[in-house]
Amino acid sequence: MQDGKSSPRSARRTQAERRAETRKALLNAARALIVEKGYAETGTPEIVKAAEVTRGALYHHFADKADLMRALVQQEAEAIAEEIDARTDTGQTPLDAFMSGAKAYFSAMSVAGRAKIMLLEGPTVLGPAEMTEIDRETGGATLLEGLRHAASHGALADVPLEPLADLLSSAFDRAALAIANGGDRDAYETATRTLLAGILTA
């Protein structure tokens, strides 16, 4: 427009961008504080102050602190799934594809603070059922797809895939937590390959 006024459409877009920026600021502030202090020791006034937004803005985007934690876990889970998807090639053998996915997962979980959020604070706050649901919507779905791909190539005959995915997910989580805490990543990757080779060739 020539008169310098914004159209309603551009104004709405700008408002949407502001909302997105506020939400991102809240998530970033909550993430930093929870990684540093833990969920229980982090109060919403601290989050609001760190995000430089109003308390009303917090409750506009999130019902409460637990809802904010839920969104944070979802955000981290999506980032993990994206890295696994980017580094997994279905043209590989099932074992190599799984190892690519496992290595991508270990890399994604090595991002500072992520293991604490996903494996310690998240399950404590949200509970196992909700964490499992988030996992299945993101990285857990990728793992199950990998098992189905392996089964289509003749592996895993008569093996129930969903329980197997749950067991492997737990093993990967334990390894990721150990690596994030300074464990020998090469050793865990070697052990992971041995475990997967036994499962996929059984």
Mean pLDDT: 89
Distance between the termini: 68 Å
Strand content: under 5%
CATH level-4 homologous superfamily of the largest domain: Tetracycline Repressor, domain 2
**Major sheet description:** none
CATH class of the largest domain: Mainly Alpha
Number of strands: 0
- Named CATH topology of the largest domain: Tetracycline Repressor, domain 2
Shape: elongated
Task: Describe the protein in words.
The mean pLDDT is 89. The chain has 2 domains: 62 residues, Orthogonal Bundle (Arc Repressor Mutant, subunit A), CATH 1.10.10; 135 residues, Tetracycline Repressor, domain 2 (Orthogonal Bundle), CATH 1.10.357. Helix 1 packs across helix 2, helix 4 crosses helix 6 and helix 5 packs antiparallel against helix 10. It is mostly helical and 202 residues long. 78% of the residues lie in helices and 0% in strands. The longest helix has 30 residues. It has 10 helices and no strands. It is elongated and about 55 Å long.
What descriptive keywords fit this protein?
202 residues, mainly alpha, Arc Repressor Mutant, subunit A, Tetracycline Repressor, domain 2, 2 domains, 0% strand, elongated
Outline the fold blueprint.
Blueprint: H1 8-37, H2 44-51, H3 55-61, H4 65-87, H5 94-109, H6 114-126, H7 128-137, H8 139-152, H9 161-180, H10 185-200
